[in-house]
TrEMBL record:
Transmembrane segments: 72-92
Classification of source organism: Eukaryota, Metazoa, Ecdysozoa, Arthropoda, Chelicerata
Protein name: Cytochrome c oxidase assembly protein COX11, mitochondrial
Location in or out of the cell: Mitochondrion inner membrane
Subunit structure: Interacts with CNNM4/ACDP4. Interacts with RANBP2.
Purpose of the protein: Exerts its effect at some terminal stage of cytochrome c oxidase synthesis, probably by being involved in the insertion of the copper B into subunit I.
Keywords, comma-separated and alphabetical: Membrane, Transmembrane, Transmembrane helix
Membrane disposition: Single-pass membrane protein
Length: 252
């Protein structure tokens, strides 16, 4: 009986070997699966940390860029304000120099002779009507009432026109002033010729004095042939009056 038991136990061991092998294989597979899951988890942690660092760096970069843009915008706006203030003070002397060089505002003798020849030979364009609108402005420090005598005049290219502006000193002391002008649209400026103008001529107004300032001009007949001005039926002539301090230097 004992021998039979040994044989049975021996057979049992032989039969259990495949089962043990299968169990070991299963344990090995489970261990590898656990290792893979551990690797995946560690990879996920690394990716999360990297993603967090990237987001943090991007947010810092975006914040720094925004602050830099704000600083740059502030500096740019400050520079623009300073430049505009400088140009406002330099407008009169610079524009006066330009007119002296070109003869546009100040009526130099060669310009007058050229205009006289033009007037003698030009023909009026009867079928083209232009409305010239007169506007006036003054600097905030000017103590004068400055305005156009007429609101507008309808004329034709090749026709001479006389208009007036009125300046009144509202103070109890003399006032010296000077005027600049502008023409709109800008394309029409080269066809707008002033024969007589008070621009850049120093005007002295006694206390409470009121004067009429003449503007004698014509629109060149070539205006009617300019394709860029076919639809331009209005021209704006605008003057700006500045008071000049008697103790200060006169603009160049």
């Amino acid at each position: 009986m004992f021998s039979q038991f040994r044989i049975s136990f021996s057979r049992l061991r032989q039969l259990s070997k495949p089962i043990v092998s299968i169990m070991r294989l299963h344990i090995s597979l489970n261990s590898r699966e656990i290792q893979i899951k551990n690797i995946e988890f560690k990879t996920f942690l690394v990716q999360s940390k990297v993603s967090t660092l990237i987001r943090r760096n991007f947010n810092e970069y975006r914040y720094n860029s925004r602050q830099e843009n704000i600083r740059n915008t502030g500096l740019t706006m400050t520079a623009i304000v300073i430049i505009c203030l400088g140009l406002s003070y330099a407008a009169v002397p610079l524009y006066r120099i330009y007119c002296q060089k070109t003869g546009t505002g100040l009526m130099a003798q060669p310009v007058i002779e050229k205009l006289n020849k033009k007037i003698a030979t030009m023909n009026k364009i009867e079928d083209r009507q232009i409305k010239v609108i007169f506007e006036a402005d003054k600097s905030a420090s000017t103590a004068c009432d400055f305005r156009p005598t007429q609101h507008s005049i309808v004329c034709s290219p090749g026709e001479t026109v006389l208009a007036f502006y009125t300046a009144k000193n509202i103070l109890d002391r003399p006032v010296n002033g000077i005027a600049t002008y502008n023409i709109l649209p800008f394309e029409a400026a080269k066809y707008f010729h002033k024969i007589q103008c008070f621009c850049f001529e120093e005007q002295q107004l006694n206390a409470k004095e009121e004067v009429d300032l003449p503007v004698f001009f014509f629109i060149d007949p070539e205006f009617a042939r300019d394709p860029y001005l076919f639809d331009a039926n209005d021209i704006i002539l605008s003057y700006n009056f500045y008071e000049i301090n008697q103790n200060s230097k006169r603009p160049l």
